[in-house]
Amino acid sequence: MWQYKAPVEDTLFVINTWLDATTSWQGAELWQDLDKALIEQIMIEAGRFVEGELAPINASGDNQGCRLENGRVLTPDGFPAAYQAFIDGGWPALACDEHYGGQGLPLLLNTALMEMMAGANHAWFMYPGITHGAYECLHAHGSETIKKRYLPKIVSGEWLVSMDITEPQAGSDVGLIKSKAVEQTDGSYLVTGNKIFISGADHDLTENTLHLVLARTPDSLPGTRGLSLFLVSKFVLNEDGTLGDKNNLDITGIEHKLGIKGSATCSVSFDGAKAYLVGELNRGLSHMFIMMNAARLQVGLHGIGHMESATQQAIDYANERLQSRHAFAADKDPKAVAIKHHPAIKHKLNELKAFSEGLRIVAFWIAHLIDEQTIATQGAEKERIGQLLAVLTPIIKAFATEHGFRLASSALQVFGGYGYVNEYPIGQTLRDSRIAMIYEGTNEIQANDLVLRKIIADQGQGITVLLKIIEQELALHDDSRAEKELMTLLLGEIKVMVNSLLTRAKLDDVEYAANVAPDVMQVMGYGLMAYAWLKTLRVIEASQLRDVYLHKKRTGEYFFHHVLPLVYGYLLKIQAGDRAIPDIE
Questions:
Q1: Does the reported pTM lie above 0.70?
Q2: pLDDT in tens, 103-113
């Protein structure tokens, strides 16, 4: 039976060769002593953890799922033990502030770990994954009292955190949230309301769970402008920081889902639960955006993790499954061969590798940019990186998750009928991957965000930064390279597309932008992969290990000549954006 293998080799290629991360860290006091040998050791240990602790309980977690007993969520067998191993390994503290007990390492390394965890066991990863975004939010906006009392417990992994946003009447439109928070004489608040679809709101992995809750005070403005952010602990803390009485919140149910069954998706009732304000009143949504943006990169990693898992499964099966090639072989040889040699299967396997390896580069680049923004000393550079990240974040979330699901389905096709039965785990990969297109802002919302906010409202500033980076990469390639020509042509098309969006926006043609947003998202996703693979081809040629990376060079060339042409269908759809979309009666 197939067993997940952590992509350590390819991870190290991206970090050390493609990004050359240690070079950019040399000028930063924070990470100047971090060398490639230490990075390799961390990634090897990360691989051992996910292969040894998470992958073995992925299928059993899916079969057993979570259950609610006496108001307490119980996770599948093996989940608590795996979480204790996670704590024992020091993994929760990897990219956290040393002042609160963290190791102070770059987000890039934590991102690589998160991709492995998503690929090995998506459901289990949901519990600690959400918590890191909460750490970032509290680190940025929590009062000194909150940070002192709560961050050490979060950084150590002793307590986990959930993000409580959605309500029965308020899904994507958070402005409809009704939960109330009433201030008390001691400066605390009492929160009342009902939340649904809350991942990890309760479990048996830690003794306490924290909730970051969006609610509104009685005199707040309607809509998103009246939302504030509150920290609610399952147990009220005593003065000395120990756990006291249970707070006034209850888990009223858990969802029975298509996939990620080992991740508890809860309904939560707050009935005057003691809470503390995080940041400023009426700025809750902007404060939570730190957590939400971290989550969107992480959800992109869910998609990439599923691609990697699906790729490994499809390749392993294609190597062992024998079938005759005589139907199309020139010599009509009836000899059975592994189906990996059949052209239709070769296409699927190469596309799987092109997407999983290409989007791994894009995701790790985004994480590296966040690190570079952290250590940047000049405001202009911080602003430039911020503009770039604003464009890249919705793309990685939507593009990686949509194709993560599509490619899991493509991988299942390699198995034929065996893929549709439970004998092989590819069916679970397909089911688990589907949710990532929905949560943390649906992919349709991400497309609107990209077009309406990150291109049009920004007047194209952020995307101009991105296009200049691609132009700089093109300048480093010889004109005879076919892949350079293909990238140059696509870059020209993207510039025309962006100019068209900005021109139409000046005419207040909002309908056009909304019509073409999903296709713009696809064009930009393919464009980012093209940039990733173009630079890959260059750095391989410059590397002393170019013979070792020959397989990767061939995958990159396959992408340009067999995958990238698909982008032109989306460009044609954008050109048809003037045509009204009919309402369905």
A1: yes
A2: 999 999 999 99
